[in-house]
Design brief:
This protein is α/β, with parallel strands linked by helices. The chain has 24 helices and five strands. The protein folds into three domains: about 130 residues, Rossmann fold (3-Layer(aba) Sandwich); about 90 residues, Serine Threonine Protein Phosphatase 5, Tetratricopeptide repeat (Alpha Horseshoe), CATH 1.25.40; about 200 residues, DNA Cyclobutane Dipyrimidine Photolyase, subunit A, domain 3 (Orthogonal Bundle). About 50% of the residues lie in helices and about 5% in strands. Bound molecules: flavin-adenine dinucleotide (FAD). The site of flavin-adenine dinucleotide has 26 residues, from helix 11, helix 13, helix 17 and helix 19.
Length: about 500
């Protein structure tokens, strides 16, 4: 039987700065580049078609780069163990190489099964770290130094002249990418390393100087932020590649303030994923476990209101504009994401778990390790972060002062002038007729009263903060998750 090496691709869909691929290419054996669409994830509520479309584009891009070398990614559909078993019936698997996956509990369970199977069959499964995330870290001692070391390490340039092997004859598993995954989605970013680098170049050529002052605006951020999040989440570009480009532009006139802000965020990227790695149960429960009982006693449950939030029909203009924009484009900036969660959990007083998979499905850049810690932080259930209740009216006045973003996504309000646009429920019946608002519109009677609900949320959240059980849990969290280098 022919001996082969497998590179199992997951959220690392690129051909550069790729340690598993590098390991495989260093050996004198045929290499199979494998991507498997697993029903485990295809059916998972965190994912939606937009993610598989992005992955499909990424694979097509990889295949275009591999073509001159006679290589091709083998694309299968099936549970990973069945696929490995099918490959094993045809070849002797010498090694499986992959990146460590800091994923959902379903992929953790799947990885345990893979580890069991590979051990039972004496197949070494060699996993490389994902960015600067340390598997099994007990605390954050020296973590920032580690981040720096990893991000400044040389990038290996891989020689793709290799003995590639494909699995097209594995008929029961081979997947021809469906047409609807290959089609570009209007308004959404398209996957692939080529576009990742184009986006990055464009940031340094044109957009980046505005980054630091545009980051909070729902419209301007779409232009001035890097927009690399889906490319990082699906691994079309590595964080190290991005960071080294940042360092290369450090001295470029006009960029410094933007690059200082961006550099912090690249640290946060791994910092949050590290939190999730160290405490993955936060997929199900509050980081600060004392909040679980508090939420179950106090949170409201109202399907209609939850659906109004999900569909952008709450009657609060900026909330609805953000949600509808997400449905259409898969992207909004950090502040607007935080505001959507704040509105759901604070103003609507709903459990964060009611909305967490909905936003995951909509975010093209869904990354479990950032999404869960951020979601809980904005929901105010960590006990360690400052509580922020974003006022959507104030956010609109400050960051969409002309109402451009709101009018783009809520055409029904296009005739309403500012400042009434930010609080349309204050208009008189005559104004409603004049601005062509239907009299049963949610903008004349939103699902909640903002001021009353904000006050209730403030009282509730601050009284919880004072509870002994919350404080005790907060101490444990600080010891585990706070980066310690600064205090040495
Ligand atoms: C509730 C909530 C959920 C989120 N879920 C995700 C998610 O699933 N995937 C995701 O990539 N980001 C998530 N974020 C973080 C942030 O909003 C996005 O990373 C950012 O808006 C992406 O746009 P950009 O690439 O243009 O960012 P830029 O500002 O250009 O930043 C560059 C990169 O730095 C990282 N980054 C930026 N801000 C943060 C942050 N606050 N925390 C951690 N890393 C950051 C991202 O990888 C980002 O691509 C979430 C934020 C909130 C409040």
């Amino acid at each position: 039987m022919q001996s082969i090496n497998i590179v199992w691709l997951k959220r690392d869909l690129r051909l550069t700065d790729h340690q598993p691929l590098q390991h495989a290419l260093e050996q004198d054996l045929p290499v199979i580049l494998l991507y498997v669409f697993e029903p485990l994830l295809l059916n998972d509520p965190h994912y939606s078609e937009r993610h598989w479309r992005f992955v499909s584009h990424s694979l097509v891009d990889m295949n275009q780069q591999l073509a001159p070398y006679g290589g091709k990614v083998s694309i299968l559909r099936g549970e990973i163990l069945s696929c490995f078993k099918a490959i094993q019936s045809l070849y002797s698997i010498a090694n499986i190489y992959s990146h460590q996956e800091i994923g959902l509990s379903c992929t953790y369970q799947r990885d345990k099964q893979v580890a069991h199977w590979t051990q039972a069959h004496n197949i070494p499964w060699i996993e490389s770290p994902q960015g600067a995330v340390i598997r099994g870290a007990k605390n954050r001692k020296e973590w920032d130094k580690h981040w720096d070391r990893i991000m400044r390490a040389p990038i290996a340039h891989l020689d793709l002249n290799a003995n590639w092997l494909t699995l097209e004859h594995l008929k029961d598993y081979t997947l021809t990418l469906p047409k609807h995954w290959l089609k570009k989605a209007k308004g959404q970013q398209t996957g692939g390393t080529t576009l990742a680098w184009k986006t990055l170049d464009d940031f340094f050529q044109r957009r980046g100087k505005e980054y630091y002052r545009s980051i909070s605006s729902p419209s301007a951020s779409r232009y001035a932020c890097t927009r690399l999040s889906p490319y990082l989440a699906w691994g079309n570009i590595s964080l190290r590649e991005l960071y080294q480009q940042l360092l290369g532009h450090w001295q470029v006139k006009g960029f410094r303030r933007s690059l200082v802000a961006l550099s912090s965020r690249l640290h946060w990227h791994c910092h949050f994923i590290q939190k999730f790695e160290s405490e993955s149960a936060m997929e199900y429960r509050c980081v600060n476990q004392a909040y679980d009982a508090l939420l179950s006693q106090s949170c409201l449950s109202d399907r209609d209101k939850l659906n109004a939030w999900k569909q952008g029909q709450t009657g609060i203009p900026l909330i609805d504009a953000c949600m509808r924009c997400l449905h259409h484009t898969g992207y909004i900036n950090f502040r607007m994401r935080a505001m959507l969660v704040s509105f759901l959990t604070h103003h609507m007083n709903m459990d964060w778990r009611e909305g967490v998979t909905h936003l995951a499905q909509l975010f093209l850049d869904f990354e479990p390790g950032i999404h869960y810690p951020q979601f809980q932080m904005q929901a105010g259930v960590t006990g360690t972060n400052t509580i922020r209740i974003y006022n959507p009216t104030k956010q609109a006045q400050e960051h969409d002062s002309e109402g451009v973003f709101i009018k783009q996504w809520l055409p029904e309000l296009k005739h309403v002038p500012t400042p009434l646009l930010f609080e349309p429920w204050k208009m008189t019946q005559m104004e409603a007729v004049m601005y062509q608002i239907e009299l049963d519109s949610c903008y004349l009677s939103p699902i909640i009263d903002l001021a009353t609900r904000a006050k209730e949320a403030r009282d509730r959240l601050w009284s919880w903060r004072k509870l002994d059980q919350v404080k005790q849990e907060s101490q444990r969290i600080l010891q585990r998750h706070v980066r310690l280098d600064d205090h040495n």
